[in-house]
Specification:
With 78 residues, this protein is mainly beta. It contains no helices and 8 strands.
Length: 78
């Protein structure tokens, strides 16, 4: 699936990921390939991901929104 983590100033990450863990407002949750569509408010915390080649990455965020649809995870952060 495609993961995009963007802020108003820059693109923090754009690429293929096998797993993404997000700090949702109601608790942390993980998105895998073919996940159901959703929109979620994000709290302060870390967006953690595993890329398609097996590398782990993370981005510290102050909050934001996540949109999951058709194997695209779009994370807008502030």
């Amino acid at each position: 699936m495609t993961l995009e983590i963007i802020s108003a100033q820059e693109v923090l990450f754009r690429g293929e990921a096998d797993m993404v863990t997000l700090p949702g407002a109601m608790g942390s949750f993980t998105v895998l390939k073919n996940h159901a569509s959703l929109i979620s408010v994000l709290n302060e915390g870390k967006v953690k991901y595993i890329t398609s080649d097996g590398n782990a990455g993370e981005a510290q965020i102050s909050g934001g929104l996540a949109d999951v649809h058709n194997n695209v995870v779009s994370v807008c952060v502030y």
